[in-house]
Amino acid sequence: MAIDKARVAGLVGFWAFIVGLVISLVAGVFLPANGLLVLILVVLGIVIGFLNITPKETQALLLAAIALIVVGNAFGSLTLLDINKYIGGILFYVTVFVSPAAVIAAIKTLWAIGKPGD
Q: Structure pTM?
C-alpha cells in the first residue's frame, strides 16, 4: 500500500490548523501572553503555510489575516464582564497563529508573479 504524500501533508496541515485554533481559543481565555504558546502557534502557522495553503486559497487567507489585524483592538470597549480581555486574548493568539501562514502565502504569491515564463 503506497502512502500518498499529498494526503499525508494535507492531514498534517489540517490537524495543525485544528490544534492551533484550539490552543488560540483556550490560551486566549486562560493564558494571556504566554511566550511558549506564541512560539508553538508560530511553528504551527508555518506548517500550515507550507502544507495547506494552495494558490486558490491565498487571497482568502490574506484577506482574513488583514481582517484579524484590523479588528484586533475593536473589542477594547466591551468592558462588561471583562469580555474585552478574553476576546482580545483570543484574537491575539489567532493572529499570531495565522500571520506566519499569511506571510508564506504572500511570498509564494510574489514569487509566482515575479518568476519569468507563464
A: 0.83
